[in-house]
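Course assignment 3, question 2. Fill in each field.
Student: A.L.
Task: Predict the tertiary structure for the chain below.
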Amino acid sequence: MPKQTAIDDSAAATRKITDALRRAEHRVVIAKAPPGAGKTTTMRRVTRTLLDDGLPVVPIVVQTNAQADDLATALAAEGIRTGRFVSEGGEPEARTRAASAPGLVVDRQLSGLQGCEAIVAPADKWVYCNNPRAAAAPPHYDLALIDEAYQMRGDNLFRVANLFDRALAVGDPGQLDPFTIADTRRFEGVPLGPLETAAGTLELSYPDAPVVELPVSWRLPASAVDLVRSAFYELDFTSATDHDERELHVDRLDIGSPADAAVTTMARTGWAYLELSAAFTTRTDSGMVTAVADAATALFARNAQTRCEQNQGGIPLVGGRVAVGAAHTDQVAALRREFQQRLAAGGPAQLADVVVDTANRLQGREFDVTVVWHPLAGRRDATAFHLEAGRLCVLLSRHRHGCIVVGREGVGDLLDAHPTESNVFLNLPADCPDGWEANHAVLTHLLRHRVAG
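Answer field:
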């Protein structure tokens, strides 16, 4: 069972949020959350409290259609009459979800959501309310909840700010910044620039805003919390479980291959660093593709099973509960081809369900075990993209039981040869964490769990 202190501390943090909103002394309240802090649960509880206090409707801003569907379904399951405000593209999936969720209403117009206690939509849909060609005048609400506020761009916040008098912004400050294909150099060093996160914009605009830190990660095992917290966060948080609460067990013997040794090490300690020999390679390094696929295959070949507070009797590890993460889409494509080839050759059937994707697309998701292609493996240089702390944080914080990182020798030398070169702007807060320092901290930890590849 989760630690009682974790349950109590989490409930206390939620009360701090609702108390700050009830006092209405500030236009903004910010809640900072570590990975797996139960943000959806927090949003549900805050919404219910606000409704019980007499707020007629709670508008909720999220960042993607998938997040909107998940949250709307969760709110409806709590008995909250929920409206899913949709665009044409998001409507089919939203209606499919609503079919099995009594109390969830889907409509492209706010007029069709009259009587709903909560209305959920991505930021881009709320922006539509300010369209001069919209059929109705923009709505206005006393208070809005903004979920994943560190994934939301500042320009989208500016475009919906007139709809709400006050806001609660909830998000994970350690994740990837909002993505754009635009040239961002013109905005560097500009306070409140359009590419600043919504949460960062609110912090700069309202420096006296109450900040509540969610104190528990319900996802990360005790073996991962210390690394993730020290390398990527200024928050103080703990794991909801003790070291002996979760276990990954493998039945079949370790036959001595590097992949088997990595699985054995990960099962014992929660981490493994499968390190191949040093080499400068192309981005879709065939040796890395093979090693990553070997590690994933070994999990199923050895009949891995997990035991935790949710399944105390233990259950087999299935493909859908394993993720393979990489930095680039071409690396993901190469890994997917390798998995298909192994399936065609009679490999473990579970490989068909393994989620293989980039850090950007794995963000916000949770798995039992992850296998990670180290972003700096085989590189001659360490660019800002590959040193970005948020990318590495996402890759290393998706798991509930264990993580295998696959890399090549020489990452430490590469970091020493390419110290951070990002500009420092005197009128803006310094980036925290620094990507170069975070990579060094992670490498130091991983080398304690090294397996020669």
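Instructor remarks: The longest helix spans residues 4-23. The chain has a mean pLDDT of 91.
Grade: pending
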